[in-house]
Structures are given as C-alpha cells and as structure tokens.
Amino acid sequence: MAGVRTPVIVGPTAVGKTAVAVALAAHWPLEVISADSRQVYRGLDIGTAKPTRRELARVPHHGLGLVPVGERYSAGRFARDAQGWVLDVLARGRMPVVVGGTGLYVRALSEGLFVEPPLEGWRRHALERWTSELEAHELVRWAARLDPGYRGGGRQRAARAVELALLTGQSLSHWQRIARQQAAVEPWYVRLTVPRQVLHQRIRRRALQMVQQGIIEEVAAALADGAEPGTPGLDGVGLKEAAAYLLTGGERDQVTEAISIGTRQYAKRQETWFRHQLPGDTIVLDATRPAEELAAEIATRWRRHVNQGVAFVP
Fold it and tell me: Is the entire prediction scored with pTM above 0.90?
C-alpha cells in the first residue's frame, strides 16, 4: 500500500524553503521533516543553516542535530528515521511536510527502500570490472536499454541499474516500485526556484551572515573536539572552506567569497538534480515572491488536491 500523500518542498540552498515552511503554519498544523544531509550534525547550527530558535518555536522540526560530527548518516538511515517521524506526526493529527535540498534523502523517503536480492559474488565482480571500463555515456546507454524506467543519476547509479538488471533479471525500477508500495510518503512535490542572479545574491548574503555569526569559530570548536578535516559533517559547503582557512591561514575576508563560490556550485547541482529527477506534475513556484504569498498558494493548491480525495486533511 502506498504511503500517505505528503507535501515535499525542495529547491537549492538559500532559495527560501524554511521561510515558506514556517509561513505554512498559518494554514496547517504542521511539523517539518528536514531532508538535509548537513543539518543532521550536532554543533554545526551556523554552518548548516539550521532554522532559528524563533522558527523552531513556531514549527517543530525533525531531523536536526541527530549525530556527532564524524559519524556517517546515509540516505537509507534517513528514510527509515523519517518514516517513523511521519507516522508520529500523523498520529498526533498534524501534517508532515518534508523540506530539504538533499535529493538522495528525498528519493529514499519517497521511493522507499528495497532489500537487494542475493547476487552471486563472482558474477557481480566481473560486471563491476566491465562497467568500470565503460565510458560514462556508454554506461548510461546500457542502463537505459536494460531499464526503460531509468531516470539517470550519475555513474554509480547507472552501474547499479546495469548490475541489477543482468544479475536478477529485473530492472532497478522494478525493485523500486515494490519498495515504493511500502513507503510512508507519497510525495506531492513543490519546487522553489529563483533567477540565478537572485539566488547568487542570496547565497552571498547568507555566506556573509555565516562568517559574521561565527561559522569559523563553530568549525574551530569541532576540530578542537577531535574532528578531522573532511570528516562527515565537516565536508559540506561552507564548513570545509572554514576548515581550510583554519588549517592553512589566509585572510578572513576571503572565507566569505570561498563559501559563496562553493555554495553557488552546489546550488547549481541541486537545481539540475531537481529539474531532471522529479516527476512532470511537480509544482514549480517563483520564490522571489514573499514566503507568505507562496505559502498561501501552496495551501490553495493542496486544498484542490484534497478535494480529489487523495490527500491527508490536517
């Protein structure tokens, strides 16, 4: 049985997702499920742009500060935890809203998890050697040929699609369909977007605020506690630039620019992922508009969706 229909608000970093989610509290009794692979780390509130105390007081959030710096937190682990949060929120008669920019987290939650069937070791190793020798475009072509439902996603995903199809006789999309039937969430996607110049301005402003608020000192504290540079938690955009400054020196003012450049590159990858990986019926909204206005439109569209009898009514 498919999961409950749930709003999933996505978009690149600094586009304004948190502000829209908080504004939605005027329309729904909601709780946010954070789908952000950086915000799961404790002690890095500035560097991961966690919601403010005021925002958290208005809207409860799940998925923040779960693990210490240095501990890996996979998309699969997120999906298992998030399914529990979703069910808990529903049990309280409130509405879960997934918000985040980590595409793999969103996919893991909405598509469910499947237990990979047993694969013969020697055959798998032979296939791994073969796929590793293919050019990227050839590997993608094989993946699409063996799995008509293949939607892209990089070399590793293409190789996995090829291996599963050849070793099990069933495509990756087949196994995902089975898993999706058990997923707690059936996503109703809303993608926020702004013109690139506007996004770059917001990113620059956020980078400056991070440095002013103490991202460098925050990273210094993590390093002093024994965290290694590049370890899970400190390998994210903004944090790794602050760590590089602490380890190699330089001008403090240059940290802001380094964070801005890294974040712009990351945001571009996020936009590409969401543009190509989400379904065609995704709602796309211009986030240059005020958060309250966007929230009102989302709530209106959701009411129409509810009237079709397929969605949760808070």
Answer: no
